[in-house]
Amino acid sequence: MANEAETGPVDAGAGPEHSRGQVTRPTGEAIERLQARLQEEASEKTKLWWERYMKGAASFRGVPMAAIRSTLRSWYTEESLDDLPASSRRQVALELLAESYSEDKLAGVLLLREHILAELGAADLPSFAATFSAGHIGDWGICDWFSVKVLSALVERDGRPMAEAIATWTTSEALWQRRAAAVALAPLAPRGDEHFDGFVALSIEVARANVRDEARFMQTSVGWLLRELSKSNPSIVLGFVREHDSLLSREARRMALTKIEGRGRR
Fold it and tell me: pTM for the full model?
Protein backbone atom coordinates (compact mmCIF):
# COMPACT_ATOMS: atom_id res chain seq x y z
CA MET A 1 0.00 0.00 0.00
CA ALA A 2 1.08 3.57 -0.48
CA ASN A 3 2.85 4.78 2.66
CA GLU A 4 1.78 7.73 4.78
CA ALA A 5 4.26 10.11 3.18
CA GLU A 6 2.68 9.49 -0.21
CA THR A 7 -0.84 10.51 0.74
CA GLY A 8 -0.25 14.25 0.65
CA PRO A 9 -0.61 16.42 -2.47
CA VAL A 10 2.14 16.15 -5.03
CA ASP A 11 4.07 19.40 -5.29
CA ALA A 12 4.52 20.20 -8.95
CA GLY A 13 7.07 22.83 -8.00
CA ALA A 14 7.46 26.26 -9.49
CA GLY A 15 8.14 25.09 -13.03
CA PRO A 16 6.15 26.02 -16.13
CA GLU A 17 3.64 23.22 -15.68
CA HIS A 18 2.69 24.52 -12.24
CA SER A 19 2.53 28.11 -13.43
CA ARG A 20 -0.14 27.18 -15.97
CA GLY A 21 -2.49 26.62 -13.03
CA GLN A 22 -2.94 22.86 -13.36
CA VAL A 23 -4.40 21.38 -10.19
CA THR A 24 -2.59 18.76 -8.12
CA ARG A 25 -4.50 16.17 -6.09
CA PRO A 26 -3.58 13.58 -3.44
CA THR A 27 -2.00 10.90 -5.59
CA GLY A 28 -1.27 8.61 -2.63
CA GLU A 29 -5.00 8.09 -2.17
CA ALA A 30 -5.39 7.44 -5.89
CA ILE A 31 -2.67 4.79 -5.73
CA GLU A 32 -4.46 3.11 -2.84
CA ARG A 33 -7.64 3.00 -4.90
CA LEU A 34 -5.74 1.38 -7.77
CA GLN A 35 -4.22 -1.16 -5.41
CA ALA A 36 -7.65 -2.04 -4.04
CA ARG A 37 -8.95 -2.58 -7.57
CA LEU A 38 -5.98 -4.73 -8.48
CA GLN A 39 -6.52 -6.85 -5.40
CA GLU A 40 -10.12 -7.42 -6.45
CA GLU A 41 -8.76 -8.98 -9.68
CA ALA A 42 -6.34 -11.26 -7.85
CA SER A 43 -6.61 -15.02 -7.54
CA GLU A 44 -4.61 -17.43 -5.43
CA LYS A 45 -4.02 -19.67 -8.46
CA THR A 46 -2.41 -16.85 -10.45
CA LYS A 47 -0.38 -15.74 -7.43
CA LEU A 48 1.06 -19.22 -6.91
CA TRP A 49 1.82 -19.62 -10.64
CA TRP A 50 3.81 -16.39 -10.76
CA GLU A 51 5.65 -17.14 -7.52
CA ARG A 52 6.72 -20.52 -8.88
CA TYR A 53 7.69 -19.01 -12.25
CA MET A 54 9.82 -16.31 -10.58
CA LYS A 55 11.18 -18.84 -8.06
CA GLY A 56 10.39 -16.57 -5.15
CA ALA A 57 12.29 -13.59 -6.54
CA ALA A 58 9.23 -11.30 -6.45
CA SER A 59 5.95 -10.83 -4.58
CA PHE A 60 2.61 -11.08 -6.36
CA ARG A 61 -1.03 -10.29 -5.75
CA GLY A 62 -2.12 -12.78 -8.40
CA VAL A 63 -3.46 -10.50 -11.15
CA PRO A 64 -3.20 -11.48 -14.85
CA MET A 65 -1.44 -8.99 -17.12
CA ALA A 66 -4.58 -8.24 -19.13
CA ALA A 67 -6.39 -7.30 -15.93
CA ILE A 68 -3.53 -5.05 -14.82
CA ARG A 69 -3.72 -3.16 -18.12
CA SER A 70 -7.51 -2.81 -18.17
CA THR A 71 -7.67 -1.82 -14.51
CA LEU A 72 -4.94 0.78 -15.00
CA ARG A 73 -6.71 2.30 -18.01
CA SER A 74 -10.06 2.67 -16.29
CA TRP A 75 -8.42 3.96 -13.10
CA TYR A 76 -6.36 6.52 -15.06
CA THR A 77 -9.51 7.88 -16.71
CA GLU A 78 -11.65 7.89 -13.58
CA GLU A 79 -8.95 9.64 -11.55
CA SER A 80 -8.60 12.29 -14.32
CA LEU A 81 -4.84 11.91 -14.20
CA ASP A 82 -4.50 13.71 -17.54
CA ASP A 83 -5.36 16.86 -15.57
CA LEU A 84 -2.20 16.49 -13.48
CA PRO A 85 1.08 18.10 -14.55
CA ALA A 86 3.37 15.71 -16.40
CA SER A 87 5.86 15.80 -13.51
CA SER A 88 3.16 14.61 -11.11
CA ARG A 89 2.09 11.76 -13.40
CA ARG A 90 5.70 10.63 -13.69
CA GLN A 91 5.93 10.68 -9.91
CA VAL A 92 2.85 8.47 -9.64
CA ALA A 93 4.56 5.93 -11.92
CA LEU A 94 7.74 6.02 -9.84
CA GLU A 95 5.72 5.56 -6.65
CA LEU A 96 4.05 2.51 -8.16
CA LEU A 97 7.46 1.10 -9.04
CA ALA A 98 8.44 1.58 -5.39
CA GLU A 99 5.59 -0.64 -4.18
CA SER A 100 6.27 -4.22 -3.13
CA TYR A 101 3.92 -6.20 -5.38
CA SER A 102 4.95 -6.89 -8.97
CA GLU A 103 1.49 -6.00 -10.27
CA ASP A 104 1.83 -2.50 -8.80
CA LYS A 105 5.26 -2.15 -10.38
CA LEU A 106 3.94 -3.38 -13.73
CA ALA A 107 1.16 -0.82 -13.50
CA GLY A 108 3.87 1.80 -13.07
CA VAL A 109 5.66 0.57 -16.18
CA LEU A 110 2.43 0.56 -18.17
CA LEU A 111 1.62 4.06 -16.93
CA LEU A 112 4.95 5.28 -18.29
CA ARG A 113 4.62 3.39 -21.58
CA GLU A 114 0.96 3.92 -22.44
CA HIS A 115 0.14 7.27 -20.87
CA ILE A 116 3.33 9.29 -20.33
CA LEU A 117 5.89 8.16 -22.93
CA ALA A 118 5.47 11.23 -25.16
CA GLU A 119 6.48 13.42 -22.22
CA LEU A 120 9.54 11.40 -21.22
CA GLY A 121 13.08 12.19 -22.31
CA ALA A 122 16.74 12.10 -21.33
CA ALA A 123 16.02 14.37 -18.36
CA ASP A 124 14.08 11.50 -16.79
CA LEU A 125 16.98 9.03 -16.88
CA PRO A 126 18.42 10.13 -13.50
CA SER A 127 15.06 9.42 -11.85
CA PHE A 128 14.96 6.00 -13.51
CA ALA A 129 18.54 5.32 -12.40
CA ALA A 130 17.59 6.23 -8.84
CA THR A 131 14.75 3.71 -9.02
CA PHE A 132 17.29 0.99 -9.79
CA SER A 133 19.68 2.23 -7.09
CA ALA A 134 16.90 2.15 -4.51
CA GLY A 135 16.13 -1.48 -5.37
CA HIS A 136 12.65 -0.71 -6.66
CA ILE A 137 13.53 -2.56 -9.85
CA GLY A 138 15.10 -5.61 -8.32
CA ASP A 139 14.21 -8.71 -10.32
CA TRP A 140 14.51 -9.76 -13.94
CA GLY A 141 10.78 -9.60 -14.64
CA ILE A 142 10.34 -5.91 -13.78
CA CYS A 143 13.77 -5.01 -15.16
CA ASP A 144 13.06 -6.54 -18.55
CA TRP A 145 9.51 -5.22 -18.76
CA PHE A 146 10.69 -1.68 -17.95
CA SER A 147 13.64 -1.96 -20.34
CA VAL A 148 11.60 -3.23 -23.30
CA LYS A 149 8.45 -1.19 -22.78
CA VAL A 150 9.96 2.14 -21.73
CA LEU A 151 13.70 2.38 -22.37
CA SER A 152 13.68 0.64 -25.76
CA ALA A 153 10.76 2.81 -26.90
CA LEU A 154 12.72 5.93 -25.92
CA VAL A 155 15.79 4.74 -27.84
CA GLU A 156 13.67 3.97 -30.90
CA ARG A 157 12.14 7.44 -30.78
CA ASP A 158 15.16 9.55 -29.79
CA GLY A 159 17.99 7.60 -31.39
CA ARG A 160 21.69 7.94 -30.62
CA PRO A 161 21.58 10.47 -27.73
CA MET A 162 19.16 8.31 -25.73
CA ALA A 163 20.99 5.08 -26.57
CA GLU A 164 24.35 6.50 -25.55
CA ALA A 165 22.94 7.84 -22.30
CA ILE A 166 21.46 4.46 -21.37
CA ALA A 167 24.67 2.70 -22.42
CA THR A 168 26.54 4.54 -19.65
CA TRP A 169 24.52 2.47 -17.19
CA THR A 170 26.97 -0.40 -17.73
CA THR A 171 29.14 1.28 -15.07
CA SER A 172 26.34 1.42 -12.49
CA GLU A 173 26.65 -0.37 -9.19
CA ALA A 174 23.12 -1.79 -9.55
CA LEU A 175 23.15 -5.12 -11.40
CA TRP A 176 19.64 -4.65 -12.80
CA GLN A 177 20.52 -1.21 -14.15
CA ARG A 178 23.55 -2.68 -15.94
CA ARG A 179 21.31 -5.42 -17.36
CA ALA A 180 18.83 -2.77 -18.54
CA ALA A 181 21.55 -1.10 -20.62
CA ALA A 182 21.69 -4.24 -22.79
CA VAL A 183 18.04 -5.27 -22.69
CA ALA A 184 16.94 -1.79 -23.82
CA LEU A 185 18.89 -2.25 -27.06
CA ALA A 186 17.93 -5.88 -27.73
CA PRO A 187 14.48 -5.32 -29.34
CA LEU A 188 16.05 -2.85 -31.80
CA ALA A 189 19.14 -4.90 -32.60
CA PRO A 190 17.67 -6.95 -35.50
CA ARG A 191 17.71 -3.78 -37.62
CA GLY A 192 21.25 -2.85 -36.63
CA ASP A 193 22.50 0.47 -37.94
CA GLU A 194 19.16 1.25 -39.56
CA HIS A 195 18.34 2.98 -36.27
CA PHE A 196 21.39 5.23 -36.44
CA ASP A 197 24.99 4.98 -37.58
CA GLY A 198 26.92 3.35 -34.78
CA PHE A 199 24.06 1.36 -33.23
CA VAL A 200 25.89 -1.93 -33.78
CA ALA A 201 29.16 -0.59 -32.38
CA LEU A 202 27.37 0.76 -29.32
CA SER A 203 25.62 -2.58 -28.78
CA ILE A 204 28.95 -4.39 -28.89
CA GLU A 205 30.39 -1.87 -26.43
CA VAL A 206 27.54 -2.60 -24.01
CA ALA A 207 27.96 -6.35 -24.47
CA ARG A 208 31.71 -6.05 -23.91
CA ALA A 209 31.10 -4.26 -20.60
CA ASN A 210 28.45 -6.67 -19.31
CA VAL A 211 30.19 -9.88 -20.31
CA ARG A 212 32.87 -9.22 -17.70
CA ASP A 213 30.33 -9.89 -14.95
CA GLU A 214 29.79 -13.62 -14.42
CA ALA A 215 26.40 -13.16 -12.72
CA ARG A 216 23.76 -15.12 -14.63
CA PHE A 217 21.48 -12.19 -15.43
CA MET A 218 24.41 -10.13 -16.68
CA GLN A 219 25.49 -12.98 -18.93
CA THR A 220 21.99 -13.50 -20.29
CA SER A 221 21.70 -9.77 -21.02
CA VAL A 222 24.68 -10.23 -23.33
CA GLY A 223 23.28 -13.41 -24.87
CA TRP A 224 19.93 -11.75 -25.55
CA LEU A 225 21.47 -8.66 -27.13
CA LEU A 226 23.85 -10.72 -29.30
CA ARG A 227 21.07 -13.09 -30.39
CA GLU A 228 19.01 -10.20 -31.70
CA LEU A 229 22.04 -8.50 -33.24
CA SER A 230 22.94 -11.71 -35.08
CA LYS A 231 19.79 -11.35 -37.18
CA SER A 232 21.39 -8.42 -38.99
CA ASN A 233 25.10 -8.81 -38.22
CA PRO A 234 25.96 -12.49 -37.75
CA SER A 235 29.66 -12.08 -38.52
CA ILE A 236 30.08 -9.41 -35.84
CA VAL A 237 28.38 -11.62 -33.27
CA LEU A 238 30.55 -14.60 -34.23
CA GLY A 239 33.63 -12.43 -33.82
CA PHE A 240 32.47 -11.27 -30.39
CA VAL A 241 31.83 -14.84 -29.25
CA ARG A 242 35.29 -15.97 -30.40
CA GLU A 243 36.97 -12.99 -28.74
CA HIS A 244 35.14 -13.37 -25.43
CA ASP A 245 34.74 -17.15 -25.32
CA SER A 246 36.46 -17.42 -21.94
CA LEU A 247 34.08 -14.86 -20.39
CA LEU A 248 30.78 -16.06 -21.83
CA SER A 249 28.75 -18.54 -19.81
CA ARG A 250 27.49 -21.63 -21.62
CA GLU A 251 23.95 -20.23 -21.48
CA ALA A 252 24.96 -16.84 -22.89
CA ARG A 253 26.98 -18.45 -25.68
CA ARG A 254 24.05 -20.66 -26.64
CA MET A 255 21.72 -17.66 -26.70
CA ALA A 256 24.12 -15.62 -28.81
CA LEU A 257 24.57 -18.32 -31.44
CA THR A 258 21.09 -19.83 -31.61
CA LYS A 259 19.93 -17.85 -34.65
CA ILE A 260 23.22 -18.27 -36.48
CA GLU A 261 23.33 -22.02 -35.94
CA GLY A 262 19.66 -22.32 -36.87
CA ARG A 263 20.36 -20.49 -40.13
CA GLY A 264 23.19 -22.91 -40.85
CA ARG A 265 20.97 -25.97 -40.34
CA ARG A 266 18.45 -24.64 -42.84
Answer: 0.88
In a domain, residue 93? The reply is yes
CA-nearest of 133, 135, 169 to 151 is 169
Q: In terms of domains, do 71 and 154 share one?
A: no
Q: How far apart are CA 127 and CA 133, in angstroms?
A: 10
101, part of any domain: yes
The CATH number of whichever domain residue 206 belongs to comes to: 1.25.10.90
Looking at the chain, how many residues does it have? 266
Q: Which domain holds residue 257?
A: 138-266
Instruction: Please tell me the predicted confidence (pLDDT) of residue 28.
Output: 87
pLDDT number for residue 258: 95
Residues of the chain with pLDDT under 50: 1-24, 264-266
Residue 261 DSSP class? H
Among 220, 214, 223, which Cα is nearest to 258's? 223
Helix (H) or strand (E) holding 36: helix 27-40
Contact 153, 113 (CB under 8 A): yes
The reported pLDDT for the residue numbered 220 is 98
Give how far Cα 131 sits from Cα of 36, 56, 97, 137, 143, Å.
Answer: 24, 21, 8, 6, 11
Cα maximum dimension of the chain: 64
Residues 78 and 148 in one domain: no
